[in-house]
Amino acid sequence: MASAASSEVPPDGAAPVGRPDPDVEDLLEHSAEKFGAGSAVTMNSPSLALGVRSWTSTGSLALDLAIGGPHVPGGIPTGRIVEIRGETSEGKSLILYHLLANNQKAGGISILFDTEEATAPSHAVDLGVNPDTLVMPQPKTMDNGIPRWTVEEIVERVESYLTRLYLKWRERDGEMRPLMIGWDSVAQTPSKYESEQAPGDENYMRTKVGDHAKSLSTAFRRLPGLFMRLNASMVCINQLRGGPPKRPGLPEPKTSLGGRALGFAASVRIEVSKLGDVYDKADPKTRQKIGIDIEAEVFKNKISRPFRCAMYRVYFETGICDVALMPDQLVNWGAMTKTGGTRIGAGMYQFPSATGLSPKGMRLDSYLETMERNQVIRDALRDWFRDRFKLQEALSPVAKARLAAGMENASVTDPNRDVGD
Asked: Helices in 223-273 by DSSP H: which ranges?
């Protein structure tokens, strides 16, 4: 039995961990009396919408780990805004398609604002997207008779959709399903002022200084709280473009469009860059490109430690392949060794015996052939990766409920498994 002295508040005024603090309790009671019940709560209150309730895999285990860190499923967290930026043709939209597809497979709802109007439905289906349930809002027609998206209209639509789903789920007292909204892309979405200019007007092809940035700044002041409370996430695709160097001889600086509002609002920011091209070795004479190798850096992260990097391969026809560059990724992280070369794909890789691969040494070509023809070893490597880095299974509460109800044929799979490999 604890002594009376042990239950007293320490001399410095701090209450022991796990025990109520009388001053905090008094402050909560005062807030409830003056501003209403629930106007102030402690961080561990069940009514407080903090923390990440579910995760959506990017299709790459290495990138999932770089974002979420160990002890969680990893990937894109719900309740947050995420920015994926990069230069042209570096697989930004492809990551978004994987995320939308994996969110659908986990029992969630996926919405795509395609402001570039460049989506290829057949390619999205090849990457795992279910076209029957992917919602693609369409823009209103402007005064000049042209349907066109604006930043202001997208914000209005997002707020309307979130409110509608929240009221519907609250009426039936059900679990809020993960909601993922994709915006492709921020850089190509004009402000309302830009869209209202017609050919022949004095201000046609002109923009107000900072008009686009101001529109985004207003938008991202209103949205983050809604996403946190409604278990929704928004993935914004942005572009990196070059600017004039500060002085001759310096490298060209890179900047993303739309000002700094998106950078401040986003909890996770990812920058993708191309490492090299992948050629078809079955036809070496033509040197046909069939994919690219990508490095992704998580340079802002409020969920876990920032500045982690991940490598993965993208095949143009099937999407992200998370196992192709996994050997070099594991070498970089110190989880295995290789001899005979430092370049990506060079040398002999010594795999841990638990992966089912040769611990004596294996070249990348032989490794890729084994991965292509042996699904058992490929699954064993993924399982070892999850166990080695303590990645959990990424099933949403809705998916778990469906499995518990015996709906084996429901659209619920392991989102950590890539959809295009």
From this structure: 224-229, 261-265
Q: Could you tell me the end-to-end alpha-carbon distance of the chain, in angstroms, rounded to an integer?
A: 60
Give the whole-angstrom CA distance, residue 421 versus residue 416. Answer: 12
According to DSSP H, which parts of 172-245 are helical?
192-196, 211-222, 224-229
DSSP β-ladder status, 348-350 and 337-339: antiparallel
Omega before residue 185 within 30° of 0, cis? yes
Q: How far apart, in whole angstroms, are the C-alpha atoms of residue 1 and residue 229?
A: 42
Nearest to 118 by CA among 158, 86, 77, 149: 149
Q: What distance in Å separates the CA atoms of residue 263 and residue 2, rounded to the nearest whole number? A: 51
Contacts with 29 (C-beta within 8 Å, 6 or more apart), sequence order? none
Q: Write the CA distances from 66 to 75, 271, 339, integer angstroms.
A: 8, 12, 25
Q: Flag whether pLDDT at 399 surpasses 80.
A: no
Q: Is 331 exposed, middle or buried (0-12, 13-18, 19+ CB in 10 A)?
A: middle
Task: Give the pLDDT confidence of 311-338 residue by residue, as tens digits.
Answer: 999 999 999 998 999 999 999 888 888 9
**Nearest in space to 89 (alpha carbons), one of 240, 307, 280:** 240
Tell me how long the chain is: 421
Give the C-alpha separation, 386 to 401, whole Å. 23
Tell the burial category of 266 from Cβ atoms under 10 Å away from its Cβ (0-12, 13-18, 19+): buried
- pTM for the full model? 0.83
β-pair type (289-301, 268-279): antiparallel
Ranges 28-37, 96-105, 167-176, 197-206: which has the least confidence:
197-206
Tens digits of residue pLDDT in 332-347: 888 888 988 888 888 8
295's enclosing H/E stretch is strand 289-301
Q: Which residues contact 4 (CB under 8 A, 6 or more apart)?
A: none
Q: With 50 as the cut, is the pLDDT of residue 396 above it?
A: no
Contact 56, 102 (CB under 8 A): yes
- Measure CA 152 to chain center: 23
Other residues' Cβ atoms within 10 Å of the Cβ of residue 235 = 27
